[in-house]
Amino acid sequence: MKKHETFTIPKKPFICLGLLLIGSQAGVYLAEDFLMKNNHLIGYIVIFILGYGCLVFAMIFYKLYHVTCPSCLGKTITKNSRKEVPDSWSAYCRKCNVLWDLGIANGD
Questions:
Q1: Considering only CA atoms, which of 47, 50, 5, 42 is closest in space to residue 25?
Q2: Which H, E and C letters describe the chain, residue by residue?
Q3: Mean pLDDT for the chain?
Q4: Alpha carbons 72 and 68: distance in angstroms, whole number
């Protein structure tokens, strides 16, 4: 088993999602009178935030299940536990016969 050197979960979309949620709460507080008169905008804001959140999680899952092998750049098979590494995510390359540790531990 080898450590995968290039695989990382991007943090920028999660930071943007957090800032978007904080910003929307501040915006609702500051523009309360405007939103009371135009309450349909609240629905659009909620749909936008939920859509962005779904997009972020879909992007992370796509990246997690489409890990390339650093040696041969081939496809790997990603699993969240194997008998070699029962408590973390790993990716197996059939071409190289190498098990890559992705460095993501299963939640406690």
A1: 42
A2: CEECCCCCCCCHHHHHHHHHHHHHHHHHHHCHHHHHHCCHHHHHHHHHHHHHHHHHHHHHHHHHHCCECCCCCCECEEECCCCCCCCEEEEEECCCCEEEEEEEECCC
A3: 79
A4: 8
User: What's the pLDDT tens digit per position in 20-47?
Assistant: 888 877 777 777 777 777 777 777 777 8
Phi, psi of 97 (to 5 degrees): 55, 45
Is the pTM higher than 0.85?
A: no
Question: What would the mean pLDDT of 55-71 be, rounded to a whole number?
Answer: 85
